[in-house]
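Dear colleagues,

I hope this message finds you well. In preparation for our joint manuscript, I am sending the Maleylpyruvate isomerase family mycothiol-dependent enzyme (Mycolicibacterium iranicum) sequence together with its predicted structure, so that both groups work from identical material. I would be grateful if you could confirm receipt.
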Amino acid sequence: MREFVWHCNEIEAQADLFADHLDGADLTTAVPSCPGWTVAQLACHVEAGLRWAREVVETRAESPPSDTELRDLAGVDDEDAAELAAALRGSATGLARTLREAGPAEQMWCPVPGGGSGFFARRFAHETAMHRADAALALDVDYTLPNFLAVDGVQEWLELGCMPFHFEVHPWMRELLGPGRTIGLHTTDTNDDWLLDFTGDALAWRRGPEPTAAELRGPVTDVLLVLYRRKPVSTVQIRGDADLVDFWMERVAFA
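The corresponding structure tokens are as follows:
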């Protein structure tokens, strides 16, 4: 329950910070980490996504509602920054309130097995935080995350990134499997450790420090941004087999 509360709070907090980035910004600035989008289009995508998630939770949807509005952004052009910021904050508050009313265990359609309101709280906390990173990097403004959110973001990335369905929709990820292929993640500020294990017949991960063929080391927010391809691998320290790290990052599908 505590994590659910954190996630609901962070949906609002990250949207509020995103809205702050828009104040005085050139919304036509291109977003390198979202090719083809401007900051205005990115903000509209996030705002529409928050409303989409609220609809899923509020209606206890049995199938996914249309997401055309958050995908088709061709009509987004000369947006008013203040109006867009207000819409972001309002949609985040609406989703967080709907989630709190539902509680962490309510069931509805979910893109992953066994998910529900708890999944949407966590996913949209991180979705909003990561797209805020897109805006911050594009606008060259400072970006920080609470350590607990960044650690949870790494954990969620591992959980989603190692799901079996990736082999069905991204068959090239099978190329990751092979003898001796293990990669460690170590966060130098929070002292957390994870291990990615590709030595079996499926992608696997677990917590804790273990000897690995390669290791990424750095502050937790930098590690998270590297995993999501928002920053280059060179942002963090690589120990061991750098070629394995490059091979892995070229085939990572969840970003």
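For the figure legend, we might mention the following. Residues 117-139 form the longest helix (23 residues). Residues 13 and 92 are 9 Å apart (CA to CA).

With kind regards,
E.M.
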